[in-house]
Amino acid sequence: MSNRPLAPVPVTTEHTDLHARNVSFSWEDTPLHWLPGDPFAGHTINVLHLLLPAGERWFVHVYKQVLPYITDERLREDVIGFIGQEAMHATAHDDVLPHLRRLGLDPTPYTAQVDWLFEKLLGDRTLPPGKARRWWLMERVAMIAAIEHYTAFLGDWVLNAGELDRRGADPMMLDLLRWHGAEEVEHRSVAFDLFMHVDGNYRRRARTWATAFTALVFLWQRGARFFMENDPSLPAAKASLGQFLRAGQQGVLPSAGAMLKSIPTYLSRTYHPSQEGSTAQAVAYLASSPGANGGVRP
Asked: Which of 30, 191, 205, 208 gives the lowest tally of CB atoms within 10 Å of its CB?
């Protein structure tokens, strides 16, 4: 029996070259309740538009700082491609916010809190050069790897969420979500590979997963509550755990069971993101996405 420690097992055939795509979406015809008959599920997904711009700009900022630590040329190219894709994601979701305001829902109170989280709490700190500064950089690199585990999980879910089509989801919003989801699946290994390359400490990986997961759950439920309580067409509406569980059972949101199952998956010492999702499926969608191919409405 081998005494070698367990290690991540990548699926090498899942690697692909990464590049940012110029995308175009038009929101004039997209209603506030873009998922007919289910404002809760639609608003729960809408939280992406509030969380992602600040979060992904933070990803880019941190990764520009870690580039000098990368000694593997292919990984460097992957990280540069990742940076380009994440910057485009932030811009595309940012563009939805003025449309929400036109529909009577101003997201500023919530986005101000998210901006504070990423810019202040998780931003750069005045630390002396050396171990302290490197420690804080590695903490954030590890946290991004944990967050990317869940963005890839969501990307794989939305690519396969046929119930959204059956419910008549707005095609423009669905294309935005699936374009973004497909790129999350396409680059799902980069953040993890970068963390393993520059640090790889398992205790840090587990600790930052706990921090990231807790923060995501807190921010997402807070965002869903914000949307429901401030929707001008839903007076006195509330968001609840029961609504989330039912939506997951119906297939219009990820199921609680699948989300919980993803926890031991990430924490397994043999886990590698390439083991989850399909690059071929992601690339096929990106080749057919109207928003990623001239911006023609579906």
From this structure: 30
Q: How is residue 7 written in tokens?
A: 């290690």
Can you give the pLDDT at residue 60?
95
Closest CA to 176 of 78, 54, 297, 36: 297
| pLDDT value of residue 225 | 95
State the pTM of this model.
0.92
Place of tokens 């209603």: 31
Q: Return d(Cα 286, Cα 153) in angstroms, integer.
A: 17
HSE (side-chain half, CA atoms, 13 Å) at 99: 20
Burial of 80 (0-12, 13-18, 19+ CB in 10 A): middle
Using CA atoms, how far residue 83 sits from 77, 168, 188, 189, in Å, is 10, 33, 13, 13
The whole-angstrom separation of Cα 76 and Cα 198 is 12
Going from the C-alpha of 195 to that of each of 32, 110, 183, 199, 204, the distances in angstroms are 38, 30, 19, 6, 10
Q: What span, in angstroms and rounded, lies between the C-alpha atoms of 258 and 152? A: 13
DSSP string, 65-105: HHGGG---HHHHHHHHHHHHHHHHHHHHHHTHHHHHHHTT-
Residues 233 and 33: their CA atoms lie apart, in Å, by 10
Name residues of the chain where pLDDT drops below 70.
1-5, 12, 294-298
Query: Which whole-number Å values give the CA distances from 69 to 56, 75, 194, 288, in the listed order?
Result: 20, 11, 10, 36
What's the longest Cα–Cα distance across the chain?
A: 65
Residue whose tokens read 């990464």: 18
Q: How much is the pLDDT for 297?
A: 43
Can you give the C-alpha Rg of the chain in angstroms?
19
| Spatial distance between the Cα atoms of 104 and 233, rounded to a whole number of angstroms | 9
pLDDT, mean over the chain: 92
Helix (H) or strand (E) holding 196: helix 190-198
